[in-house]
Structures are given as structure tokens and as C-alpha cells.
Amino acid sequence: MATYAKHRSTRLLVVSLMLASLVTITVDSRGGRAGPLAALGRAGAAIIGPMQEGVSAVFRPVGSFFSNVFRAGALAQENTALREQIGLLQRQIQENLTLRRELEELRRLLDIAEIHDIEGVGATVIGEDTSNFEWAVTIDKGSEDGVVVDMPVLAGEGLVGRVVEVSSGQSKVLLIIDPDSAVAAKLSASGERGVLGGQREELLQFELVDPATEVRPGELVETSGYQLESGQEGVYPPGIPIGEVAQVEPDEAELTLRVLVRPHVDFSRLSTVIIVTGTTSLIPEATPPPPGG
Q1: Which residues pair with 162 in a beta bridge?
Q2: DSSP for the chain, written as a single string
Q3: How many CA atoms lie within 13 A of 202 on its CB side?
Q4: For the chain, what is the radius of gyration of the CA atoms?
Q5: What's the rounded Cα separation, in Å, for the pair 52 and 40?
Q6: Which of 142, 150, 175, 186 keeps 20 to 30 A from 165, CA to CA?
Q7: Mean pLDDT, rounded, of the chain
Q8: The dihedral of CA 63, 67, 68, 69: what is its sign?
């Protein structure tokens, strides 16, 4: 009997709750937003709303953290891609600068060849020999290209030196800054002549034929060329730019002038040259030849 009474009480409770729910739904639907239950709901929302905002404020950073964690992988990939793109652009810029410099060098070579009616073979410097005994460079042209010993070598800025050794595919060029180099030269303004010698330094020494010559810093110096009565000609054609006067000092011991000339060519950056194989320039009157030049 006790068990039956318990089950009966449970059924009565369930039925009562269902009837209460139906009544509540009916009253709320008829009352709308102005009904008593609606007011009760708004009161509950007013109490629960701040609690929901507090919970949202607590869990929002957690959600952002996980969102950023998942986003970090994508950002790392984008950063790597951007770095690779920047590296590629930098390499392209450097290549463009190199090509521009090479084109400028070639343009100057063509200009100097055209101005002085020079026929020649273009070459690239592939080695340097700036020891205590010799200042020279190796170029990538040799006998197979028609190069022979004593051919003059020029850069776009002016005189470089002369060929002293030749093999089938390359040649050695003695630079004008080598102590064994001697060039018949003249001052472009006055026309006074002399011998220009190397001294293993940035500056060349100009020994004038007439030590009483008036020389001024900044005056241009160029090859003078020469031709002997026998018909022998100098190694270097006339009129090739060499450099400009840098210093003028009296040499009391020799009772003459010490004239130092700064070459136009920067030998530390020499890369492209032209080997003179022929020229139509006129050779001046006979001049005492310098040793080697």
C-alpha cells in the first residue's frame, strides 16, 4: 500500500506541474510584453544580464588567445614568404646595379675607341698580381684572339698598360703604376713632353724633358706617342688620357720639378678593358723614346 501511495503522489505532482505550465503559457501569450510574466522575465534578465557580461569578459581573452594561437602559424608562413620576396628583390636590385655599371664601362670603352680611332678586342680582368715585384693583371684574351706582346691596353677612363705575356687564351698586362713601366707623355695644355713612370703607388712620377716647364695642379696628362727616323713607333698611340697633375714640388737635389700625376683609371676596380690592335691616329714628329714606352 505504501508503494502504491508513493506512485500515486508522484503522478499527482506531475499532472499538477503540467497544468501549471499550461496556465502559465496561456497567460503569457495573452498578456504579451505587458503581461505579468513578461515583467517577471524582464526582472530576471536585469539580474542575469550583468552576470552574463561578467562571464563573457572572463572567457573572451581565453577565446582570443586560442584564436591568436591558430593565427600564429599563418602569420609565420606569411612572414617567411615576405622575407623570401624581399631577398629576391634585393638580389634583383644588385644585379641591375651590376649590369648598369658594366654597361657604363662598355659605353666608355666604345667612346674612347671611337674618339681615338682605335681598333681593339674587349677583355675582362680575371686575375691580379700586385706583388712587391710586379703590378699586373691577367685578362681573358690571348693569341687565339690576335693579342701579341706590347699591345696597349685601355679602360674607359684612359691608359691601363701594355701586354707583356701572351698564351693561347689569356694575357698578362703590366700596369702603368709598375716601376718597370714608362710612358711617353705630355701635358695637354702646354704640350711639354716627358716620361711618366710608375712607383707602386697611387701617383705616377712625371719626368719632364724641360725642367723649367710651368706645371699646374689639375693639368691633364696624355700619351704623346713617338716615331723614330727608322720608322719605329712607340707602344702607346698619342692622345690617350692618362691622368691629371696632383702635386708639383721643386726637387732641389736634382734642380728640377717633382711632378706627380694621379691616373684616371682606378686600378683597384679594373674589370673591363680593350686591347688596342690597331689605330689610325697620326703619329707626331720624332721624339726621344722612353725606356719601354
Answers
A1: 152, 174
A2: -HHHHHHHHHHHHHHHHHHHHHHHHHHHHHHGGGSHHHHHHHHHHHHHHHHHHHHHHHHHHHHHHHHHHHHHHHHHHHHHHHHHHHHHHHHHHHHHHHHHHHHHHHHHHHHHHHHTTEEEEEEEEEEEEE-SS-EEEEES--GGGT--TT-EEEETTEEEEEEEEE-SS-EEEEETTSTT-EEEEEETTT--EEEEE--SSSSEEEEESSTT----TT-EEEE---B-TTS-B-SSPTT-EEEEEEEEEEETTTTEEEEEEEESS-GGG--EEEEEEEE-PPP-S--PPPTT-
A3: 8
A4: 47
A5: 18
A6: 186
A7: 75
A8: positive
- Ramachandran class of 115: left when φ > 0, alpha when ψ lies in -120 to 50, beta otherwise: alpha
Q: Find the mean pLDDT for residues 105-117.
A: 76
Residue with cell 715585384: 133
Pairwise CA distance, residues 160 & 140, whole Å? 15
Whether residue 80 has pLDDT greater than 80 = yes
- Tallying the residues shown for the chain, one arrives at 293
Axis-axis angle for helices 36-115, 2-31 (nearest 10)? 70
Spatial separation of the C-alpha atoms in residues 238 and 222, rounded to whole Å: 7
Please provide the DSSP assignment of 93-132 as one string: HHHHHHHHHHHHHHHHHHHHHHHTTEEEEEEEEEEEEE-S
CA nearest to 159, candidates 192, 184, 128: 184
Q: For residues 160 and 109, is the Cβ–Cβ distance under 8 A?
A: no
Query: Distance between CA 195 and CA 182 in Å, rounded?
Result: 6
pTM above 0.70, yes or no: no
Cβ–Cβ under 8 Å, residues 265 and 155? yes
For 205, the grid coordinates are 712620377
At residue 199, φ and ψ (nearest 5 deg) are: -150, 30
